[in-house]
Amino acid sequence: MNDLISIIVPVYNSGLYLNSCIHSVLQQTFPHYELILVDDGSQDESEIICEKACKADQRIRFIRQTHQGVSAARNRALNAAKGNYLFFLDSDDMIHPYLLEVLYTTLSRTHSTMAATEYCFIENNDPVKPIIKTSSTQYFSDYIHINNQTVLDMFVQGHTLLLYGTGGIMIHRNNLKIPFFDERLPNGEDTKFIYQMLLLGADTLILNKPWYYYRKYETASSKTRTLKSYHSMYKCECYIRNGELKNHRIINAAAREQILLNRICDWYMTAKLNHDLQLCNYLKRMALHEYKSCNFPQISAYNKFKFLLAFYCSPLYYAYAMASTLIAAILHYCDIY
Fold first, then answer.
1. E strands of 82-152, at which residues?
2. DSSP notation for 74-101
3. pTM listed for this prediction
4. What is the distance between the alpha carbons of residues 188 and 9, in angstroms, rounded to a whole number?
5. What is the pLDDT of residues 298-329, one digit of tens each?
6. Which end of the chain has fewer CB atoms at under 10 Å, N or C?
């Protein structure tokens, strides 16, 4: 059926939060969905939770696979999905009861391809406040529409943070050949996926409600980066920059190169603070490769100086970064008051 929403949830050792995630789906005011749980070889009670949920509600489908990574789990769900709408949800996050209904309604009314909602960040043990249900119709106009070229520029130039993960994203298939996630990338795979959707011409709706509850906790993958993780994120950034060069969007390519250089500097400073010599040496080689590339001359002299400062005088770079953060905080305070 065309109005079926396929909710894709990759699961890996999520037993502590998985029940809350599933419960938030069962509370949705939009009933026409299938919840696809793909267990990626969990070692905890996640498989048992998935089995119980599948038996309790016929809209829940459970798929098992050996541990292959989050991209492989999402791809397995994409192959199995029956709906004409796709919604991505991570197994330790939750969603507002109206979210599916409002995203679906706005997408279908506007004939748009992709929709996202704002995040509400919660700590690992924070309960979500009880939600007072009124009428969902009052939220159907509470969004902004961004055409494809504009959202592509915003995304590549780093002017929006809502599209860097797939959590909370709904996609209308609309005869599009949806790309698969790159299973070679353990990190940055969702950023690459969104970029590929934008290259296909997807326009985007942004719902002005913090209705995707994103859980922050110390054991999250973003807190346990490895050398392989950094290499994966580097490959993702290069893919986007090179894609813009290929399409002759020079301003976008230069902006993405600057983002990449800033990230390399941040990664390097973190590695130095953690006394990770192996990662420091790897990032130095990465920095040298970018310095010698044809992309480096495209950035400003100021940013070239800052980049070189990080690797040749890191204490001064660190002092500069701290001062910049302090000044930004002061200016923000002055704007408020």
1. 85-88, 94-95, 114-123, 143-146
2. HHHHHHH---SEEEE--TT-EE-TTHHH
3. 0.91
4. 17
5. 898 988 988 999 998 888 887 877 777 777 66
6. C
